[in-house]
Amino acid sequence: MTYDPLAAFRMEGHAAIVTGGAQNIGAGIARAFAGAGARVMIADLDGAKAAATAAAIAAETGRDVRGMACDVTQEGDIQAVVAAAVAAFGGLSTLVNNVGWGGVNTDPLAVTEQQMLDSYRLNTISAYRMTAACVPHLLQAQNPAVINSGSFSSAVPAYDILAYATAKAALNQMMVSLAHALAKRVRVNSVLIGTVITEGYAAAGIDAATQERMMHPDTLTGRPGRPEDVAHAMLWLASPAGSWISGQTINVHGGGSVVRLFGH
């Protein structure tokens, strides 16, 4: 038999939930998982868009991909999407906590307490609650994994998105703690994502001129990220190829900033 190292990246027999999967990075993750053979439930605040994205991915990959509305800040919605995925797929092996959001604040000292709480609720608590709801099913699966969409802003000064970066930093700590709590049973990791240009930037209040500057980042790779860049890292962590990886933050950000001490 010919050895095929790529076989370890296949996801046949896996069933996944991807939150915030109707568009942008989340849709890229759902597409990669389905393309590798997994059945996927896309959970998104926009149920109609989730269903449309799921239908498009299913048509492209030939896999069972479904979409439904889910507000991850609401416990009832969380329980409903987990129950629907388990009923549809007969189990659950993978959770991607991809939902994340944060607006721009020009004055970091003017961020309100409510803005901090809202960011923590969406970016951190939702991932905890989704994970808790999925764990009973993950414990019955082969190669179960939880992967969080983190942010590079959680590891560097990011005062212009203070509430978001702070909540994502908390997500990093939570990931490590849950990886230890679930040791030898469920793998838990995070991907720290850099600048990936999507339609979400405009919705977050980032103007066109700033988006244009972001298209030319001073990174080791010299380009912003694409949804598939993140999706491929997620696939590695979720698949059997990543079965020896847990409790880790994987940086997917173009290599970070280029530091030039003596010019070019």
UniProtKB/TrEMBL annotation:
Keyword Oxidoreductase: yes
Keyword Acetylation attached: no
Family annotation (Pfam families): adh_short_C2
InterPro entries tied to this protein: NAD(P)-bd_dom_sf, Sc_DH/Rdtase_CS, SDR_fam
Family: Belongs to the short-chain dehydrogenases/reductases (SDR) family.
Entry-linked PANTHER family: OXIDOREDUCTASE, SHORT-CHAIN DEHYDROGENASE/REDUCTASE FAMILY (AFU_ORTHOLOGUE AFUA_5G02870) (PTHR43639), SHORT-CHAIN DEHYDROGENASE_REDUCTASE FAMILY PROTEIN (PTHR43639:SF1)
Protein name (record): SDR family oxidoreductase
Organism: Sediminicoccus rosea
Phylogenetic classification of the source organism: Bacteria, Pseudomonadati, Pseudomonadota, Alphaproteobacteria, Acetobacterales
